[in-house]
Specification:
Blueprint lengths: L1 H22 L21 H24 L7 H25 L16 H6 E2 L2 E2 L1 H24 L7 H18 L38
Antiparallel strand pairs: 1-2
Amino acid sequence: MHAITYSCSAALFLIVLFAILVRKDFVAFLRDTSTLPVAQRSFSLASTLTFYWTALIILSICYIGIVNDALPVIDNGVLILMGIVAGTTTAGKVIDANQSQDPNIARSQDTTPSSGFLTDILSDSNGISVSRFQTVMFNIIYGCVFVSAVISQHELYDFPSQTLTLLGISSGAYALLKIPENTPPTVNPPAVVPPSVNQPAPAPPPPPIVQPPAQT
């Protein structure tokens, strides 16, 4: 019981500390790469997910170590989950880096300041994104399942393959839909108007004028 109390107290402390750090702009690593000042940059969903799962796993290992007096065994499901999260973050960083080097792309990250933590991670350049909302909800749900299994069973939750596939599809959809968020505008060529059927045909050119030869 004391271990659960200590663990919950530590988790609450970290949540409050994280809220303070976000408020004071000490967590610049959670923000997008942008030309705006650090305090005005939008929060990054990929970086937030990396921090989210890293904090959950570290707290869970500490809790199990207190309860069992031994470090837990890290199963393959946890390793694959961290691989999915790291791959999603890397893909997002690569996409942002490539688009920032393209002079023809006007990045919304460089022109739109932060609208708040939740709004930033749920929105793209067109507003609230379904793929982002889906990714956030799935990770919150399975994060709660992970913590519940850790507290009740005193071991790290081994994610089944179906859950990892679902999280992988959700993260992949987010990464793919991140590519067209900042794309150069398409310039359509001017339309060619065909001649009307009833339009009269143009008049033929006049015949050339032949001058008579000069008389000697």
